[in-house]
Amino acid sequence: MENTKYLTGQFLLALPGIGDPRFDRAVIAVCSHDEDGALGIGVGDTIDGLGLHDVLDQFEIDPGVAPDAPIHFGGPVEPRRGFILHSPDWGGQDTIDVAGRWRLSATVDILRAIAEGSGPEHWLVALGYAGWGAGQLDEEMTRHGWFSTPGDADIFYRVKANGRWERAFADAGIDPRLLANSAGNA
């Protein structure tokens, strides 16, 4: 078991009653968390009416062999900025390894590789991210709102977006139907 105060490589699961509708039933893959802040990519919701072929078209990339996969709502920060979470079998110049669990790429070279069939075996595309300033996520973790669990990348490769929240809680041994909508005071 990892013994760190930082959550890189873990999932943040929104608890019922988090108080921010943008994060209702959110599953956020934490890609970076240290003393300077945190960055996570939402993997629990997709953007209606937007697929990978639309994104490839914006970059004038022929979709080739790429499926028209759904695009995920990565978070409210920079909603036009794209990110690809993927298996560790591919790496580009600016690819970041996330705790040995998955990789994060944000350059157009991975989109070309996916279209050509030479990209990673498993991947998902998201627009936007969730970001926290220095100490902000640490402070939020002391209040009702988020539950952290080890980030099993298998969830975002094998479970549809709308089932990831329940699956991540189930993998942690928790039935989310039994969770309270608010925290009490002792």
Structural notes for this entry:
With 186 residues, the protein is α+β, with helices and mostly antiparallel strands. The protein has one domain: 3-Layer(aba) Sandwich (VC0467-like), CATH 3.40.1740. Helices cover 18% and strands 33% of the residues. It contains 5 helices and 10 strands; from the N terminus they run ββββαββββαβαβαα. A hairpin with a 2-residue loop joins β2 (27-34) and β3 (37-42). The longest helix is centred in the middle third of the chain and has 9 residues, at 108-116. The two termini are 30 Å apart. Pfam families: DUF179. Belongs to the UPF0301 (AlgH) family. This is UPF0301 protein RPR59_09695. InterPro entries: AlgH-like (IPR003774).
CATH architecture: 3-Layer(aba) Sandwich
Strand content: 25-35%
Total DSSP helices: 5
Return the average pLDDT rounded to an integer: 92
How many strands?
10
Report the sheet with the most strands, covering strand number, pairing sense and barrel closure. Answer: 10 strands, mixed
Helix content range: 10-25%
Radius of gyration: 16 Å
**CATH top-level class:** Alpha Beta
Task: Output the structural class.
Answer: alpha+beta
Order of helices and strands: EEEEHEEEEHEHEHH
The name of the CATH superfamily reads: VC0467-like
